[in-house]
Amino acid sequence: MGARIQICGRVVAQIDGRRVEAGLPGRQGPRLLVHLAANRVRPVGRDELIDAVWADDPPPKPDAALSVLLSRLRGSLGRAALEGRSQIRLALPDVWIDLEAAALGAHRAESAVARGDWAGASGPGRVALYTASRGVLPGVDAPWIDELRGRVEDLRLRALTCIAASSMGIGGAELPGAERSARMLVELSPYREVGFRLLMESLMAQGNANEALRVYDALRCRLRDELGSAPGPELQALHRRLLGPQRLAGAAGPGHRGRGG
Amino acid sequence: MALVMTCECGAMVRADTEDELVAAVERHLDEQHPQLVGKVSRDDIIAMAEMV
Predict the structure, then answer these.
(1) Interface pTM, i.e. ipTM
(2) Are B36 and A174 a contacting pair at CB < 8 A?
């Protein structure tokens, strides 16, 4: 059955179907496991691990304390789980780590979207989104955790983009989902134009063209007021398409006041 | 082992085993996301869930 390690959300370690994270000592054990699992591709020096586990409040003999912690970790995961002494690496054979599955999911989803395989993007995109949405070590602050959270947040944004696009492509009952994902993308990344494009398109596809126009206008005003810029050519073209000759003709009726800017 | 998954539509699925999780998610797809039936693999369903 191998090993499964979950570092997003609750820290969980499962070895051959048996949960073992209860054996991780105190608060330091989960931090050590998360750091090693998130950096599995490279050996990690002992100083880096001491900093990751204890940050600004190391024990009097940090190297000895780290040795004890590593021994406890080996006790939970298995003797062969860690390799190295001065440079340490998680070496569990056949291990599944949720963060890695999320990264692979985002990549698979992007590839599927690129070739127009909308349904093919649905599963991997949601692996990335649901994993990334759980966050990492909530309530714990440290530069390495902030960097890890940045990686996870990037996966979340990529996943939302793929899910919005694939849901748009599938259409039908998935259109509200496209709008939901696009709205979340816009909320999390308010200057990322692809989110606005997907939101406008999903609204248009549901027959809510005026709502889509309102979304464009809100972005236009934000970019003007905060950055002194304007929506890019693709969004402007979408806006013109939304307006269309019929809407422009209707807007030019008696009593209409055009909006400047 | 408990597995929990919350679909972005708001539906929450909780199961004690991977087989139960997959069955529950597939029922949810059938009921709420018919265009995704048969499109989401077992491995992806399991990978979406959080171990709690």
Answers:
(1) 0.97
(2) yes
